[in-house]
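Hi there,

I know you've been waiting on this one. I reran it after we fixed the sequence typo, so this is the corrected version. Both the input and the resulting structure follow.
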Amino acid sequence: MLASLTSAAPLVSYYELVSNSSGFSQQQNGLDAQKLNAQFAKMSANDSCTSGGQACIGGAFAQCVGSSWTLTPCSSGLSCFALPLVTKAGTSLACDTQSDAEARFVAAGVQGG
């Protein structure tokens, strides 16, 4: 069960598509999402950013407004993750449970998220 962030702007940003490969690989999507989650883990709400950017910071969805992050907490029991897309190349940011996020990475053929 995936609770997406429908109130946010479309999830297309410099975080949206990490790979620009011509072929679709769910495993590559998983690797790309892992890379994003690792980057997000090092970020804080006080970091500067480029307007329009999106990330997951401290478990919340973050949008860059001006040069500052604005955080929107996920619903109770959910955290923000970069997740691998299933039907095309790329990743998306969404609020999800830890267990479902982990299952999505396993389904993509990678260990851990």
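Quick highlight: The longest strand covers residues 60-65.

Best,
R. S.
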